[in-house]
Structures are given as structure tokens and as C-alpha cells.
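Researcher: Re-running this chain for the archive, since the previous output was lost when a drive failed. Same request as before.
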Amino acid sequence: MHKPKLMFDHDSRHSLIYLYEPPIYKEQIEAAVDELAGTPVDAIMWTLGEGRTMLHDTKVGEKWGHNVEKWPHIVFQRAQRNLEKLISEGNDPLQVVCDQAHKKGLLLYPNLILQQSYTEPGTDPRSSNFRFENRHLEIGVNGDLDETFPGKTYLDFKHKEVQDERFNIVQEVLNNYPVDGFELNFNLFAPIFFHPSEVEEGQKTMTQWVKRVYEEVKKSGTNRELTVVVPLDTKLALEGGLDTQEWISQGIVDVVVGQQFSLAGPPDSTANFGPLVEAAKGTNCRIHGAIHSGLDSDRMKLPSIEVVRAVASNYYQQGVDGLYLAHWFAYWPYGAEFYEMLRELPHEDIMAPKDKIHIVPTQSMQPVNEKVYGKIEKQLPQSLEVSQTVTVNFRMSDDLNRWNSMKRLHEIILRIRIDGYTEQDSLKFALNGKKLPESLLRQINRMYMMSAPRYRVGGQWFIFRLDNANWPNRGENQLEVTLIDKDPKVRGETHLRDVELEIKYLMGKNFHRGYVDQDLGPYDRSTS
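Model: Regenerated C-alpha cells:
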């Protein structure tokens, strides 16, 4: 079996079983595979329901909606009706996608969401009787945790009952379906698996459990692999009970997917894979970088191809072995740009001389609910105080000198948005310790807008078109912003809100970028 380089996260729900009006047909389940056939995607990572209940014909777990009498959510009812219909006619969805994936030359790795919060019966039809009947197995059962602790109603993996319930689902799938491996998703929600006071012992417990799963994976098929999705920050992982580096050292994981954020996170070109890549050196473990689709900025709901190239290129430069496309079903129905992104993603060299936008993650249209997802650290926004300097670190993979020597480099633009700025204020900008000259600067005043593409942010954009004396470094960079003066008659705060680095390329020396490099609107080619 070949080792997958490009893994595609398919949650089996949002772009599939939720969408189709009953009665669903086998061909519609097969479409989940067909839509990726012929692309560089090597493996589909297929989510087994919602984690608490399953969307396949399980006998050891609980099927979606089996315990629901009245549905509070009609889409969830649709999923259950579709599931029942498929199983009754002998078309178990998991079996169907396994068969179709192999028919189309793709690998299929089921994935199990390991952790989820408690919900009261009747409020969430995706939940299981195991959760309803075992409140005593939760992390916060003793009542000694703060109400804001995100893992309070999560299952505590110190209990054998919890370990066995999760393991039995894995074992059943490995024994009954022609899968190519298995994925344990530790990171979809807050990666917390033990009481904070028992984390050190919990790390050992979880390592033994992962080893148990790994041995079962290998026992069921020597070519099968175990993939784990974990927080990229190894310190954060340890705090939740996940000793990822120990798993790599013991050789009990084949692929480690590092995620900078969880479900609500944006694609992040600043992510640091150094610790995981270093831990995997000299081992058989491969490191994959997760690229999310939830940008949700004021201008883009989903990341453009330029943003995706920047993220992927930065990950490859750090030595990752492959990519994991997390929640990319958000692009459904898939269009031309989606397939163009897939075509390029396995090829660092193809993406190298193409346009990129490096975005530092910042506050988005949908703020993260930290009670559910845990605290997500972002560099932006940052408060600006008079005479104080704030810093933002970002990565850039582009070899500017190489492409400039071929006359392929068109333009390098650094965009900085300051919120709460007035014309009476004064700022200084420095890149890698060097003050950026005003001769390179264009300001765009967006203090007030009658309308905006997605939602209002406003502020003042400071746009630097960088000459080669002020280029960013290949690798690590640091932007410094200092508020020199602030209008004393204004009470509001000033924030560094956005930082973006855009690099534009030419296809060849003296090549154009559109008709005479201008946006003249529609061009009638029939008259040319």
C-alpha cells in the first residue's frame, strides 16, 4: 500500500447525508468518492457519524437516532431516515464508500471523533444512551472544576468503561470493513481527556490506550496504518493528556496530523511544525499539516487558492511529509478553483512561483466559543498603546531572490489594518528590525463604510509595496508596530487588526498579468 501524502477529511454528513432528500440512493453515497476521483487526493478520512452515534451498521456502538422519539432538528431526522433506508437495502454507507474508494484507486480511513460534551436527552438527537447513562464517567463529576472549564462534561479516559466503549467501535470497523487504516481524532473539539489534577498519570493511560489501538490496527492487516489528529502545540496536547512525542518515540502511530486550531480555526501559515518534525526524525512516523477551510474574514468565507498555496508552502518548507485537508467539504459543491487547489497541493515546486497570500490569523466573522473549543491563541488583534511596540511573527516560504533573478517576481505587498485609528494618530512600522519608509506606503481610510463585502471592520489600511531593500525573509519574519501619538480627545482603543503579505508572480520575463495589467472589465476576445 502506498503512503498517502494528501488526506481529505470527509465528515460523511454536511456534504452528503444531510443534503439528499429521502429516499437516498447508493449512487449518492458513492458520489462522495467520485467527487475526489482523478485528483491527487490519496486517502479519504471518513467520519463515523458524530462520534457518539454512528452512521454505519454498528452492532457494538449506537446508530444515529436509534433513541429518538421526536426530532428537534429536521436535518438530523433526514440523516437517520437516509441511514435506515440504506442499511435496510444492504447498502451500509461505510461499506459502500470503502468499495467505491478502492474501485477508484483511493484509500479509505474511517475516523472516530473521540471526545464530545454532554447534552441533555431530547436536546441533541446525535447523542447516545452511553452518554445519558454514564454521567459518573465525566471529567467534572466531582464538581471541583470551574464552570468555564471546557472539558467539564467530557468523558474521563481514566475509566476502563470509557476506553472500552471507544475501542470496541474501532475494533468492529477494523474486523468488518475493508478499510486501509484508521484515524483517531483527538482534536475536533477541545483536546481534553482527563481531570486537570490527573493529567500526568492520564498521559501514561492514554499512551497505553493508543498502543492498544495501534496493535489492533496491525493485527487486522499488516499494511493498515494508524493516523492521529492532535494539537500542533505539543504543550497543549500534554495538558489534555496526549503525549504525542512519546507515541512517536514508541512507534505506535504511523501518521501524526498537527492542527493549529480545532474545528473553528482558520488556515494558518504561521503554524510551527518544528517540534513534531524533529520528534519524527529517524522514525517511521510521518507528519502531516492540517489546512482548514474556515477563514471567515470580512472578504473571504473560504480561503482562496492564493491563501492555500501560502499555507501549504510554509508547511512543506518546515519538512512535513504531507497535508490533511480539514473540513474542506465546506467548498461543496466543488468548482474549478477547488480542483485547481487539489491539483497543486502535493507539489511544492509547482506552487513556488505562483501567487500567495500569507495571512496571520485574526478575529473572524464567527468568534470562537471557547466554552466548547477551548482557548484558541491568536496573535491578532493586539491592543496598541502610545509609545509601546507590538510584534507579529509570520513565516514566508518564497525564494524571492531566485524568482527575481528570472524576472518572475511582480510585486510584494504588505497590508496592515489598524482599527480605532484617526488622522491625528501617528504610527511606525518596522519589518525585521528595519523601519519601513513612507515612500513605499499607500493609506486607505476605511474608518466609515456604507457597506462592506461581508461584515464591517473598518479601520485604516497601511499598504506597503516593498522594494528589494525591504523584502521579508524566507522563513521567519517579525513585524513591529508602534503607536507614536494618539488623539487625546478620543477614548476608544486602537488595535493592530490584520496583517497580510501578498506575493505576485509573472509567468515569465516581461509577461502580463491580465490585459495590459489593468482591470478594464470584460474583454471581447472575438475582436482581438
